[in-house]
Amino acid sequence: MMKSHAQQTLRRLRAAALGIGLTIGLAAAPLALAQSLAFTFDDGPNLADTPRLTPQQRNDAMLAALAKHKVQAALFVTAGFGADKPAGYALAKAWGQAGHAIGNHTMNHPDLHSAKVSLAQYQQEILDCDAIIKTLPGYQKWYRYTFLREGNTPEKRDGMRAFLQQQGYRNAYVSLDTSDWRLDEKLQEVLTKNPQADLAPIKQAYLAHVRQRALAYRALSQQLQGRDIAQVMLMHHNLINALWLDDVIAQFKQMGWTITTPAAAFADPVYQLVPERKAPGQSLLLSMGRTLGLGMFPGGERLVDDGDAEIEALKAQGF
Hints:
Layout: H1 5-22, E1 36-44, H2 55-68, E2 74-77, H3 86-97, E3 101-104, H4 119-133, E4 139-143, H5 154-167, E5 170-171, E6 176-177, H6 180-193, H7 200-225, E7 230-236, H8 239-254, E8 258-259, H9 262-266, H10 284-291, H11 308-316
Parallel strand pairs: 1-2, 1-7, 1-8, 2-3, 3-4, 4-5, 6-7
């Protein structure tokens, strides 16, 4: 059967981009695999106060959920949020001692795209964080860009790529991005106003949000790679996951997904790709699609809305 013109165009774009800037041809990728997923968490450990749980309780709850389901995850440490202090360092150390990987997410979470942040300043943030986390069990030379922004000028983009290579760091890409942080903000807002609030609708919205993102990114991987890639999911070290990470993991198991380790997921050839864009970043899959000239696809608008749909639905319920 003849392929449609759109399919032929996407195939040519894919081949051209892979030949120029994505470094691996599709032929190098394995054939279709069962859908697998790795859990990674940014911005932790955080010593800020939240309703319901203390920093220690939040940390313990997340580690307990992972242990219950025998999930080995990765924590990308923003050291200035707590790991630069004895109490926060102990929380981060608990992750390494539990068998989870420890990665770098800068000292203070600056925005590489900001005109107020120079390339040298941003790189120093990584070095300062490295000096702290390299003493932790589970330490890996993995770097997760803040805001998933990889440089909006040639100097920053190329400078960071050279810097990471020189330092022996890999780009700890995200393929499956969630807006858990946005729903966490709503959760804390509700609990601050009413500590006894019924949280069931927020929990339901959160689980639905994660499921929607997972299915949409899976469909995008099949469109771009012709297979299920090993997905690397971005979540955060926050209250919403302290409360409901157990339910999130259980939901993926009910969906028939296999939970893998971040190291195993990063072994998928797709994570060696380097999309050539003026301002690379966001989900690796979205970045690939834009490199290939793929326009908006059905459901694609939900991948960049920061959870707006769920927040509006909660507002309509009085939250």
